[in-house]
């Protein structure tokens, strides 16, 4: 007889492992299945985020930022550095160590919370007697377990470009971009999304000539355009070459590199010759191999699992969360859904507010936002007020030597409720948290303006942006 569990989670990424831990905390007998492997073939819990996404990219961003500071900015502080060089093997090794620490951390949390872990690929077999049978295809053998509730958290994979499929040698996904062992003299990027810009930033700082081909006529189309234009200006100043409105044609890969034919915004036919090409055109839900047809689990036309607002699928007691369902493909969104589903299984009222999910691009300057953009408010005809404050006028930013960017706040013209906050500049990823809290409690810009912020701090720029809503900034 197969092992039986109250809750079986398929996928051990941010959504899956958090769902498993929360369900265990609520008293359920929980199993989690995950197939990620480390270099030695052992388990590597944490999913895309930990293994080839959020964590390793931030490790390399930090390392490359240190190098960039030493190369171009230490002299401003009276610090002389001679004979500066990059040990890329050491840098990649440090990144791998950080990843392993996070992998091991999830395993420790499973043991602490008594979550049973199965290393292998999970797939549906059948539904029988109120239970779902799940096959675990491990490295050595297969076994079948069963669960009353199933939470699918299988994540997503990088979208391939037809005619330029990933070989992870010349044409790279985020995975290959994180595993480069030699600095490419010329690096091309197709797509100026989060992953593309972050990876482009890493290799540009280390010395690569980076060119970005973006199909949209505007930069960062999902970002408030005042903020996006400020970021674009900063990236171009740093040396990033960005071609907007580019239509990519034939891509040829050879031993010497990659050739990309494209038509620019002016209609001119051009060719980009690079050593390596990163394709960053979005991600697709991981449902291949899940065998949803075995139990009649519904997928949409994109291959994602169909769920309602509570993450319920068309099947009783089968739930799905994270990148494999609708909504933004963000690790923290998956985590929130994981907690909410575990609590709903326990009869509680799990909560996820999609309007207050923050977004971050960890470039330099960082870009972070929550809520609606000015373009969205105009499109829906909502009356609003806007306030901005530049880091150029912030004392802490001056002391840091990093005054690029601004904080922008949008509030309802009548009620003054904060509708969106958009930041480009130093530590935007941390500054956005205050704004998320404020919006979750439906605060007004006046609330932020009246709160005492430490001086000198970057957070004072948020207060000043709130003051700017009523045109009463104190330091600009």
Automatic annotation (TrEMBL):
Gene Ontology CC: one annotated term: cytoplasm
Subcellular location: Cytoplasm
Disulfide bond annotation, renumbered to this chain: 49-54
Domain of life of the organism encoding this protein: Bacteria
Record: residues binding FAD: 58, 122, 154-156, 323, 329-332
Enzyme Commission code(s) on record: 1.8.1.4
Segments forming domain FAD/NAD(P)-binding: 5-338
Enzyme class (EC, first level): oxidoreductase
Catalytic residues identified in the record: 455
Alphabetically ordered keywords of this record: Cytoplasm, FAD, Flavoprotein, NAD, Nucleotide-binding, Oxidoreductase, Redox-active center
Residue ranges of every copy of the Pyridine nucleotide-disulphide oxidoreductase dimerisation domain listed in the record: 357-466
Keyword Oxidoreductase: yes
Binding sites annotated in the UniProt record for NAD(+): 191-198, 214, 282
Catalytic activity line of the entry: N(6)-[(R)-dihydrolipoyl]-L-lysyl-[protein] + NAD(+) = N(6)-[(R)-lipoyl]-L-lysyl-[protein] + NADH + H(+)
Cofactor annotation comment: Binds 1 FAD per subunit.
UniProt entry tagged with the keyword Metal-binding: no
Pfam families: Pyr_redox_2 (PF07992), Pyr_redox_dim (PF02852)
Cofactors required: FAD
GO terms assigned for molecular function: dihydrolipoyl dehydrogenase (NADH) activity; flavin adenine dinucleotide binding
BP terms from Gene Ontology: 2-oxoglutarate metabolic process
Family: Belongs to the class-I pyridine nucleotide-disulfide oxidoreductase family.
Protein name: Dihydrolipoyl dehydrogenase
Organism: Polaromonas vacuolata
Lineage: Bacteria, Pseudomonadati, Pseudomonadota, Betaproteobacteria, Burkholderiales
């Amino acid at each position: 007889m197969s092992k039986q569990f109250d809750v079986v989670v398929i996928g051990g990424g941010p959504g899956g492992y958090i769902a498993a831990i929360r369900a265990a905390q609520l008293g359920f007998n929980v199993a989690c299945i995950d197939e990620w492997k480390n270099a030695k073939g052992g388990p590597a819990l944490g999913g895309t985020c930990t293994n080839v996404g959020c964590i390793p990219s931030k490790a390399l961003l930090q390392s490359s930022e240190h190098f960039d500071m030493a190369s171009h900015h230490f002299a401003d502080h009276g610090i002389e550095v001679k004979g500066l060089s990059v040990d890329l093997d050491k840098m990649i090794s440090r990144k791998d160590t950080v990843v392993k620490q996070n992998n091991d951390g999830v395993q420790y949390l499973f043991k602490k919370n008594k979550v049973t872990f199965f290393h292998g690929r999970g797939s549906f077999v059948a539904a029988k007697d109120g239970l779902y049978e799940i096959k675990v295809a491990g490295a050595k053998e297969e076994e079948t377990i069963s669960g009353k509730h199933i939470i699918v958290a299988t994540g997503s994979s990088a979208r391939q470009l037809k005619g330029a499929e990933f070989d992870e040698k010349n044409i790279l996904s985020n995975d290959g971009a994180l595993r480069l062992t030699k600095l490419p003299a010329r690096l091309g990027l197709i797509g100026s999304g989060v992953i593309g810009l972050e990876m482009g930033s890493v290799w540009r700082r280390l010395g690569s000539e980076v060119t970005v081909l973006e199909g949209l006529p505007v930069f960062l189309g999902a970002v408030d355009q005042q903020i996006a234009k400020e970021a674009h200006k900063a990236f171009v100043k740093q040396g990033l070459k960005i071609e907007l409105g580019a239509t990519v044609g034939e891509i040829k890969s050879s031993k010497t590199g990659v050739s990309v034919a494209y038509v620019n915004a002016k209609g001119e036919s051009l060719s980009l010759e690079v050593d390596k090409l990163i394709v960053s055109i979005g991600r697709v839900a991981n449902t291949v191999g899940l065998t949803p047809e075995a139990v009649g689990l519904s997928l949409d036309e994109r291959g994602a699992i169909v769920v309602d607002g509570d993450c319920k699928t068309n099947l009783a007691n089968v739930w799905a969360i994270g990148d494999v369902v609708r909504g933004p493909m963000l690790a923290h969104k998956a985590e929130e859904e994981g907690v909410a589903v575990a609590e709903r299984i326990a009869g509680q009222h799990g909560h996820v507010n999609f309007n207050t999910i923050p977004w971050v691009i960890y470039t330099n300057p960082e870009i972070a936002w929550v809520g609606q953009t000015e373009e969205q408010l105009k499109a829906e005809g909502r009356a609003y007020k806007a306030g901005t404050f530049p880091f150029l006028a912030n004392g802490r930013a001056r002391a840091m030597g990093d005054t690029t960017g601004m904080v922008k706040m949008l509030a309802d013209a009548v009620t003054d409720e904060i509708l969106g906050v958009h930041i480009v500049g130093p530590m935007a990823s941390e500054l956005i948290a205050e704004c998320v809290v404020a919006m979750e409690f439906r605060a007004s810009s006046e609330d932020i303006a009246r709160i005492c912020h430490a001086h000198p701090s970057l957070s004072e720029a948020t207060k000043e942006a709130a003051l700017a809503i009523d045109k009463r900034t104190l330091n600009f």
